[in-house]
Write a structure and sequence with these properties.
2 domains, alpha/beta, 12 helices, 8-stranded mixed beta sheet, homodimer, NAD+ binding (chains A, B), oxidoreductase (chains A, B), globular, lipid metabolism (chains A, B), 3-hydroxybutyryl-CoA dehydrogenase (chains A, B), 285 residues, 48% helix, N-(1-d-carboxylethyl)-l-norvaline Dehydrogenase, domain 2, Rossmann fold
Chain lengths: 285, 285
């Protein structure tokens, strides 16, 4: 491995945290998976087991043997000090609540050794929003993964002005070493690359439907046939979910707030939340 | 065929006009292809021959026999009156110049029989921009095709408030009969469906590069891996061409005009026009 990072700690074993931890372990890194209590660790253990089974089914080269070995490389703990005592890299994937992240970084700053790099998987916070709590501006950046990490294997790497370029490069190498395609952001950008592309695209699709210009099926047909993509914007909205759509749009400009209100009235209030509820722009039965 | 449209006239045998005429003939419609002089018709004949060869290679079910039959169903003429004398549908695909279109529709209005439906393939003009010159508001609408019609087989159907719904439905059926997926616009919309999705998406990709946030390869990797699409925005820009990008962006809002200036300075003025010049966001050798 080209990276000097060896001991990895993932904080937070929710959907994405568990995927990150398992993927790193699958790629032969010793991984400590931290969560706040035993219930969370039981849930995490279940996630890891299901990921192992999923890899055997869906990932080229994965089998009972090497996924079992990945599980064996995972250490689960609720002891934060122990979890980070010898960590080269801590990947923070805790809930997206600013106060919680602040508090967590303040704790980490005290107990992690000086060598430890902190990387936040935050979707909505920039490194600048968190850096003052980390106690190590030069060794802090964001490292953002996509859901279904084994399939959508991008890792968006975003520093802030004081991130040490060597640390940045080290994390890029680490991302590569765990099978990711590193996406290098040269500056801070809300939404990174993926959401910077996805949000205007999805918004445009919603505007066509909300404005009464065209039906979801025609909007999606146009995109699929015109660009060869597997899915159009309304199909993607149904996967993302209408509640997430509402959250994004209700924080936007005036047009977006109108779309949020439209989404609430016509979908969310009627229980049409997308794929998760069985109906959104499409019906799923 | 469910459509009552039988005799089709295509006005203008440029790249797209020729594709529309050939596709309709391939789907067994007798097609009159009109252009302004013999040189244009010679060029058109060449286009039709190349399309026939292309279909044999690239279209399932196409062979020497049925593409030859398609060519035999095409009548080329420079006589506009003869071209439209018994037309059920005239598809107008002349250059995108408002004055030229106005003049053409005024001529057509006089010489075409009352039964003839007029459909404009205009990319940038709405039916409302042209309707007053047609002499038949109820029998006028836009029917917009995509380049490489045999592959990108959408036909966007867009009326104006006075288009007869029966005429609209008739044209939708015709689109289906020539192998298109009809995309029904319920109202006028600049950019139809495809460009309403494509322009904000392509703009977002260009912003990431122009703003120095990420490199074209990383922007495109993110989109391809994240969504499963075959191409990212920078790859599409290179196909669309930087000059077209400049034209779109220079008519936009303040941010878009800045992007146009950036595109001019960094690409167009350096001869990097995209795929057509061998270099754009990528080099093609």
């Amino acid at each position: 491995m080209a990276t000097e990072i060896r001991n990895v700690t993932v904080m937070g074993c929710g959907v994405l945290g568990a995927q990150i931890a398992f993927q790193a372990a699958y790629k032969r890194f010793p991984v400590t998976a931290y969560d706040i209590n035993n219930d969370a660790l039981v849930a995490a253990r279940g996630r890891f087991e299901r990921l192992a089974a999923n890899y055997v089914k869906n990932v080229d080269g994965a089998d009972e043997h090497n996924t079992r070995a990945a599980l064996d490389r995972l250490t689960l703990t609720t002891d934060l000090a122990a979890a980070v005592a010898d960590a080269d890299l801590v990947i923070e994937a805790i809930p997206e609540i600013l106060a919680l992240k602040q508090e967590t970084y303040q704790k980490l700053a005290d107990i992690a050794p000086a060598k430890t790099i902190f990387a936040s998987n935050s979707s909505t916070l920039l490194p600048s929003d968190l850096v003052t709590y980390t106690g190590r501006p030069d060794r802090f950046l964001n490292l953002h993964f996509a859901n279904m990490i084994w399939l959508h294997n991008t890792a968006e790497v975003m520093g802030h002005p004081d991130t040490d370029p060597k640390v940045y490069a080290e994390v890029v190498e680490f991302a590569r070493a765990i099978g990711m395609v590193p996406i290098e952001l040269h500056k801070e950008k809300a939404g990174y690359v993926l959401n910077s592309l996805l949000v205007p695209f999805l918004r445009a699709g919603m505007e066509l439907v909300a404005g009464g210009y065209a039906d979801p099926g025609d909007v999606d047909n146009t995109w699929r046939i015109g660009t060869g993509a597997p899915a159009g914007p309304c199909q993607i909205w149904d996967v993302v979910g209408m509640r997430t759509g509402y959250n994004i749009m209700s924080h936007g400009d005036e047009e977006e707030r109108k779309l949020a209100a439209w989404l609430k009235e016509n979908y969310i209030d009627k229980g049409k939340l997308g794929l998760e509820s069985g109906e959104g722009f499409y019906k799923y039965v």
